[in-house]
Amino acid sequence: MEARENRTSAAARFIERQIDQGVWKPGDKLPTERDLVERFRIARNTLRKSLDKLELSGKIIRHVGRGTFVAEPPNGQSGDSLVTKILRASPAEIMDVRLMIEPQAAELSTASATTDDFHELDRCLQGGETARDVAEFEDWDGRLHQRIVDAARNQLLSHIYAAINSVRQSDAWGKLKSRSLTSERRSIYTKQHREIVRALRNRDSDLARDTLRAHLLSVKNSFGGF
Fold it and tell me: Which of 11, 45, 79, 140 is the most exposed place for a label (fewest CB within 10 A)?
């Protein structure tokens, strides 16, 4: 499963990189779904989920019967997509939005999380605890939080949070986490992650909400003056 997820992430990153670096310009047609499926060896429905997120972020636009194209910048101005705005936001703004979204999502997820969700959450916990460096820990951290939101079973919420979660791919965020994620804080976050998942598994909505909020406040406070 992990290899398949890595191929899926590689496909999404490839498309975004081609657009961000100007290789594919507004109006350019992307390779066909068949070409991308064969290139990255993923299922077509899996590819389409990645394309859904890219379309939501304003990177691409799909026309039935014609194909998928690089989207024109809104109002003729570049760099105005949701993801671009998120990447330009300060860490304080990012964390404030996460504090508004994630605790409530966790509260919802206590009622709707499935066995598959808990299996994946356990895998994310294990991945984070055995991560060899900050980048790997951050990757598993992002997957964990995304899965918690996804377990709420609200597709729009999942898409919005995926856009917020994309900030982890920025150099600025990576440098900030490299400075702030000490071994001591990593141990604290690992413990907090397990407490959050335990509350979800126990279907304790109040505890899941409050524990996740406390965790996010810890992360925000670790950034200092931003």
Answer: 45
Q: How far is CA 123 from CA 98, 118, 204, in A?
A: 22, 8, 21
Q: Confidence band (pLDDT; 50, 70, 90) for 223? A: confident
Residue 29 lies in a domain: yes
In a domain, 138, yes or no: yes
155: tokens are 């597709």
Higher pLDDT, 130 or 86: 130
The residue segments making up the domain with residue 18 are: 2-75
**Domains held by the chain: number:** 2
Residue 84: inside a domain, yes or no?
no
Higher pLDDT among residues 82 and 5, named by residue: 82
From its phi and psi, is residue 37 left (phi > 0), alpha (psi between -120 and 50) or beta?
A: alpha
Where residue 63 sits, what CATH number does that domain have?
1.10.10.10
| Average of per-residue pLDDT values in the chain | 87
**Closest Cα to residue 185, out of 149, 147, 141, 120?**
141
* Percent of residues in the chain assigned helix, strand, coil, to nearest 5: 75, 5, 25
- Closest CA relative to residue 173, chosen from 79, 57, 101, 90: 90
By mean pLDDT, which of 6-20, 46-60, 135-149, 208-222 is the weakest?
6-20
Give per-residue burial for 124-133: e unless 16+ CB within 10 Å, then b: bbebbeebee
